[in-house]
């Protein structure tokens, strides 16, 4: 509470208000069923927790748009992580009552300790209530004492990663700014391939310098979680349960759906477990909730639209059973692979990586420019400077994929 008071001032009361109401609601588990109200039973608790948290968060975003037009750091950041924790806790309590993994209802002290855990209340990573209990009780020390020292070393490694990302961000941010990005259409007014390449490179570096800042914050908070004893996974003796990003997997991924799982990992897990699985596996619902969770700026929704289009195209190509090797050096079998086969796989992997990288980079540009006016300028800039050959190539690839026959036979091996 003192930390929140120091950072947010009196705005810390918002998190206390929502968490108090949700705790009273969760305390009625079992009691609501006996009252016989179909609209308020144990099965509806997760939905009402999610609805209350998201509606309050949406109001907070709207309030900040009016009171904080410069988008400075504010209390909505903590509200975002609070929404994830409250929804996850409610879902896990209900699953526990339905025969899932046993989870004891938290006392008020345990509840507030979990929500206001000092290592992740500002920028994540969000982890489950059970992971929090394991970290507080240090139950993993009984059988994994060696991991205490390994955890300290790993946290130092995470801190160093964060410092490197911060240094690179500080070097690149003055060179690739939002103002410079919005002025590209004036500097490159023709549709030549050279101009398109220069604009694409600026987009790539602009998105990269913003990603580096996120990596810095996430790695430092992840290191704080590990150093405090949170996030140990006894299944594989690793500290992966309090992770918020996997830089290597995200930057080198070749599939949009799999790649975004390594960006803001805890949020993606929440979307998958509490939204995607509960909403009939609808990508529209998932991306809409993801955009609303981030805020009300137009950039978040255009970011979701671009990612949604990329995901739908990948699903469509997957239905055509088009093989995409996960690695140019592995085919998932013990059979020796010829040099020519490895070369073909390498080319396919490189093309898939480049297309996915460009698609996600373009989506992230909207995410970072935020406002509708800036997003409109980026879109107009795209239409005005992209060579016609690029649009024709994209249409040709999609048309070819559409004409390919469906293959019902499942492919063996590792494909995406």
Describe the protein.
The protein has 416 residues and is mainly α. It is 66% helix and 0% strand. The chain is built from 19 helices and no strands. The protein has helices at residues 2-8, 13-26, 31-34, 45-67, 76-97, 108-115, 129-137, 146-172, 178-182, 184-187, 193-227, 247-251, 256-259, 265-276, 283-294, 298-319, 339-369, 372-385, 388-403. The longest helix is centred in the middle third of the chain and has 35 residues, at 193-227. The radius of gyration is 23 Å and the shape is globular. The relative contact order is 0.09. The model is unreliable at 31-40, 327-332 and 409-416 (pLDDT under 50).
Write the layout of secondary structure elements.
Layout: H1 2-8, H2 13-26, H3 31-34, H4 45-67, H5 76-97, H6 108-115, H7 129-137, H8 146-172, H9 178-182, H10 184-187, H11 193-227, H12 247-251, H13 256-259, H14 265-276, H15 283-294, H16 298-319, H17 339-369, H18 372-385, H19 388-403
Helix pairs in contact: 2-4, 2-5, 4-5, 5-14, 8-11, 11-17, 14-15, 15-16, 16-17
